[in-house]
Amino acid sequence: MDIDIDFDDDARSDSGMTAVSSTSQSPAPSMYSFTSSRDGRTLYREIAGRKLNAQNDLYQLPSDDNEHNRLDKQHLVHLLSVGRLYTAVEEIEEVLADNAPYQKAVLDLGCGGGNWASAMALEFPHAQIVGVDLAPTTSRPPPPNCRFEFDDFTLGMQHYYNSFDVVHSRAVANGVKDFEWLIHEAAKCLRPGGVLYFIEGNMELRNSFREPAEVAFGQGGPGQSWMARMCFEAYNTMKSRGSALDAGVMLERWMNAEPEITDVKYDVKWIPIGPWDRGVTPEETRQLIHLGTLMRQNMKEYARSLVPLFLANGFAPDLVSRFIEGADKELDDLSVHLYLTYHHCWGRKVGSPNVSAAQSAISSMIGSPRTDASSDVDVDDNDSVRAASDVSARSMLSPGPNAIPVVWEGQSPYTSTAPVRFDAESVYSGSLGSVSMSISDDVPS
Ligand SMILES: C[S@@+](CC[C@H](N)C(=O)[O-])C[C@H]1O[C@@H](n2cnc3c(N)ncnc32)[C@H](O)[C@@H]1O
């Protein structure tokens, strides 16, 4: 395998970066329109033929169409493992119910290709969804009640304090130095009673006994894994550059230590890499084969996404090639059985959501009470009143001072609200509109 390294920061963005204008269908305020020829130079750079964000040097995975396609597969893995868009079903359904005089709102930190944010916009059409990323997708318009912004959330989110009912963040630890700070800052963005929800993976891969997998060195040997070696090296490299890579296993402790958060819950999903795992029933086995097949595709592509990180941090190109060839082979012939774990952790912001108090505050300011809401007003609930006045002060959530909203022309491809079923194809088309993918070639009969 040949690997080219190119640090040309004048690199032009890829094909998906062009079609933008201020005539977007999006209701989001348009302060700025993204244009590839102008902004591709400042917001992106190129390493080893991949396009990376140019705002935050800590995060050295690509932000191009290939990566967003990979993240779509990973999103589907999450859907299949959880059964829907979130494990915190009771809490999120309660807090996003369409029962308030203000628009419910969801913030997705590190939204990437926007798959989760867009799917949430379909599931909660009355809510406003905001996705923030160093380099969100610019090639796939979201549904009308969803918008994306270019921003580094580690610069602070004061502009969003007390504004959201759900703050979600998945697989962002690589771009964060101080994850406990992030938990605190994200909690401040919530209204009282809002849900804070993190998901992080653990790069220490496990074997079929759920023990740490044996890592391949030298020429490798029986039972040793190149995929585990690659994840081990990526972990060490990212961690030595300052990333909070232990977030997955630390989430529960950190969330419990956060004074703004209460009712913390935690869950771990074990994802087989490759279709090797078996369930108790034929149906369970079928599900595990779907999951493993998708995860294998995801991890093979992840191996390629790690190339810029490895090359920029001194790994020899032929060693990187050996990692990838070894990982491809062992995942194809299933000579090693690996799991990756995803750690889900969520909690509620202290204080209870007080829709009545919020309505009172808004009504007194805009003079148009909703007649279907309760008149039981607790004016002593300062948090709720403050939240309500924040909302009325800006009828639409304003982007941060450094943020660049992404604006498209053209229709969103996300149109279907098909229910999530445990069938890879229907889950995918149900969540991601017209994007198509088949895993059938990869599934053994
Ligand atoms: C592995 S991807 C996951 C994307 C998405 N959450 C998903 O699950 O499909 C991590 C994303 O977080 C973004 N990210 C990492 N650090 C960030 C930061 N400090 N500010 C904004 N976005 C960040 C990256 O640009 C990337 O798109």
TrEMBL record:
For this protein, the record's InterPro entries field holds:
SAM-dependent_MTases_sf
Q: Which organism is it from?
A: Schizopora paradoxa
List all Polar residues biased stretches.
15-35
Q: CDD domains, alphabetically?
A: AdoMet_MTases
Record's protein name: S-adenosyl-L-methionine-dependent methyltransferase
Q: Which GO terms label this protein's molecular function in UniProt?
A: methyltransferase activity
Quick one: where's region Disordered?
A: 1-35
Which ranges form a coiled coil?
Answer: none
- Biological process GO terms, please? methylation
Q: Where is the composition biased (Acidic residues)?
A: 1-11
Keywords assigned by UniProt? Methyltransferase, Transferase
